[in-house]
Each structure stands twice: as structure tokens, then as C-alpha cells.
Amino acid sequence: MQLRYAFRLDPTPGQRIALARAFGCARVVYNDAITARERARAAGEAFPAAAALSKTLVTEAKKTPERHWLGEVSAVVLQQSLRDAEMAYRNFFASLKGQRKGPRLGAPRLKSRKDSRQSVRFTANARWSITASGRLNLPKIGEVRVKWSRTLPAVPSSVTVVKDAAGRYFASFAVDTDPAADAARMPDSDQSVGIDLGLAHFAVLSDGTKIDSPRFLRRAEKKLKRAQRELSRKQKGSKNREKARLKVARAHAQVADARREFHHQLSAQLIRENQAVAVEDLAVNGLARTRLAKSVHDAGWAQFVGMLEYKAQRYGRTFLKVGRFEPTSQVCSTCGHPDGPKPLHVREWTCAACGTVHDRDHNAALNVKQAAGLAVTACGAQVRPEPVLAQRTEAGSHGSPPDARAA
What we know:
The chain is of the alpha+beta class. It has 11 helices and 14 strands. The protein has helices spanning 13-42, 50-59, 75-96, 179-185, 216-232, 239-273, 284-287, 293-299, 301-314, 360-371, 402-406, and strands spanning 2-10, 118-123, 129-130, 136-138, 142-147, 158-163, 169-176, 192-197, 201-205, 210-212, 276-280, 318-322, 348-350, 357-359. The chain has a 7-stranded antiparallel beta sheet with strand order 2-6-7-1-5-4-3. Mean pLDDT is 88; it is low at 376-407.
């Protein structure tokens, strides 16, 4: 399994200039590739092949007065930029044909030097290395200091240098993990858990554990509001406005980093303690268009579920999703009696069939676990009761007499 390990970089002023040059050259080559393909499309011609684009936009362009500065950066960076453009078109056409999962992608667009994220990628052909002192040696950039937070599990195959909207630099290493080593790190467990994600509590587990929602965005709103107000008062194009923009970007980055760290720690704990994990397949895009949009985005359910999924795959755990139309909040987890929908302010309810008093979220977590087939008895039988036939008062066509229904 291939994973990415990101570490903070601390380049010198000269290295920042060299990285800016690499970002700019990669962006120009990418835009030239997009322009060449759009011209071919407008003329009704076939798209130029990657080899032809490489020869025209890189090899021959370095010899022209307009593009001679392309030779100041590593050629691998430029070749990887062409591959990115090719992959963008490949994903776009696969999305049009319905061969790619997820929302439909738009056509590749031109990059701008004002984009919030800029990156360049170095493969093994670029001959980059990690020095004995722990620095990242990049061609035509130099040895960049890295803030190592952990050791890499294997030799990386490539490194991507990223500059985010807050002006921070990161090195993202692509590493192929060892399945045997991952299995040794995570011994088998006999536990399984169902998870109900929510807003009052971030997650409620089937064993009754309630995990409070940190609400990172809500807690930082006052600071963000002040920074946004200062930004709105600065003159466009001024240096003070750029400083204010960086201040806003750093405030947002702190919120995103704190949320990501919380998701990583919680997902790792759940995967470590349980052999099987089940969650509900929530319609996050739909919930994000309601009055609860800010709270839904602040929770970051999609990111958390994605972490659970890839960590379960990495460590040999079972990850299951329960359909979003499963009535987890409407069914008694003890007897299976459907009690109907309930408004959000109802946090506890009593089953009309068996009299069990349920906590709404805990009951939903139990139903998620049972619906995923994880709740079994000692003899291996399913705990979830079999569906029972509806009563006469609950089914049948409206207005039909009992005799007619019985017939």
C-alpha cells in the first residue's frame, strides 16, 4: 500500500527563491500543455502525444529566448508537470464516460501564480537524496532542512515539495509500506464497534463511549473574524494586504491541522482496538447544504471516515459502511421494533414494544453495528432480530375494509 508522509521544510531565503523558480517553470509547462491540447481540439486535430509535447515544450523550448529560463530547474520537474496535465485529461475523460467514481470533473484549467497551493515533484530520476545530517538534497535547490517528526518506514520513491496558502513548505514522500510490518504492529483483536457520527457528540460508539466534538472552527471564529476584518480594510495589491492574507490563511491552517490531528488520533485508536469497524454512509454533501452546514464542515466526517477506511486496509482490519437509508435512529436495538422518525431535539426515547429506554445516539451506534453484521452471540448467531410481519393497523390499502384485506 502506498502512503504519503509529509514533513515541514525550513528553506533558506535563497532556497525559497529557487523553489519559487521551480514552481513557476512547472506551472508554465503545465499551462503550455493545456494550451496545446485546447488548440488541437479547436482545430479538430488529435491531441498531441506526451512525447511530442515533451520535445516541443521542454527540449526545444529551452533553446528559445522566450523559454530559455526553463533550463534553470531540474528537467524531471518539467516532465512531471507534463504528466500531471496528461493525468488531468485522462481523469476528465474517464469522468465524462462514467468510468471514474465521484462527482463529475471539469476540464483541466490553466494554473495561476496566485493559486493557494503550488507544488513540484521529484522522482528517483532527479537524484534527490536525504543526507546523513537529515537534510533533503534537491537538484538545483540545495540541501533543505527538514523538521522530522518520525522516521520513514521505507525508502520513498518520490518527493513532492508543496507550498500552501499560509506560505508553509512541506515535503511529501511517497512510501510503499510493508504488509508484514504493518500486521506486526497491529495484532488481531476480538472486538468490533459501530460508530454513530453526529454534531452533539462527534462520535458515539456501540459500547456506550461518547467522544465530544472539539468544534475547532467554532472555537477559532473570534480570531478568524478579526483577521478577516483586518484583511477587508487593506488596499488591494498592497503589501499590507498580502500580510493580512497570510494571517488569515495561517489561522485557517491552524484549524485544519488541529482537526486533522484529532481525526488521525481517533481513527488510529479505533483501528488499533477493534478488528472490525462499521460506520453509517452519511450524505455529507446534502447535509452541507442545510442550516447545519458550518457545523457539518467543522466536524469533518468525510475526512475521518476516509482515514478509518485506509487504515483498516493497511492493518488488515474490516471496514464496513451501512447504507444511509438504514433507519438506525428509528429502530429499537433490543427488539427491532420500528418506532418511527424523531426530531433532533429528542435525545432519549422509550420503545413502545419492550419498554427499553434508549439514548438516541447509543441506540443508533448499536443499530449500525448490527446492520453491518458485526454483533454476534457466543454461538455465532446474529443478534439482530428477524423482521416481523406488520400489524393490520400498520399496513394495507387506505379505505379497504378488514374483510377485504383478509380476503
